[in-house]
Specification:
Length: about 170
């Protein structure tokens, strides 16, 4: 099955900090029905209060920002979240362009001779996660096309069967 491990790196703490900097916490607290100071405390790793799973889900739904979920998954040494509800089969070219742009951003950050600040590191991680999301959406869109066409699905099945039998 799966061999989940908890990372020694503070991925979730870093995600909470990045999320807090990026959003208007006063407005968000009102939107989700939480006191502003409580939300600030829960997003501050130096405080004892922590977000619950339901609160993370509500915050992610309200902001459409997967930073907290991605940080939690990274803490468990898992890949970022891929919101399947964003899938639109006609957008394969758009997903490809976004994945390519994210990869270019990662390459630019990695090739930069300047010292990597926490903000630069967070930007690179966000680009990696965005690239993974878009590549996953490309795969899901193509899978939908194959499954939606019985002839194509049969052809893929036949090729896969030949490839499997040929390797044995």
């Amino acid at each position: 099955m799966f061999d989940f491990q908890v990372s020694n790196q503070p991925h979730f703490d870093n995600a909470c900090r990045a999320f807090a900097v990026r959003h208007n916490l006063s407005k968000l607290a009102r939107t989700i029905g939480m006191k502003e100071q409580t939300l600030r405390n829960k997003l501050n790793p130096d405080q004892v209060h922590q977000l619950t799973a339901i609160e993370i889900a509500v915050i992610t739904d309200a902001t459409e920002d997967a930073t907290l979920i991605d940080g939690l998954l990274a803490q468990m040494k898992c890949m970022p979240a891929v919101p399947v509800n964003e899938l639109a089969e006609g957008n394969i070219a758009t997903y490809t362009l976004h994945a390519t742009a994210a990869l270019g951003s990662v390459a630019a950050g990695a090739a930069s001779p300047e010292r990597q600040t926490r903000q630069a590191k967070n930007a690179i991680i966000e680009s990696v996660n965005a690239g993974i999301r878009h590549l996953s959406l490309i795969g899901l869109a193509i899978q939908g096309r194959v499954e939606g066409s019985p002839v194509l699905a049969s052809a893929v099945g036949a090729v896969a069967s030949v490839a499997t039998n040929g390797m044995m």
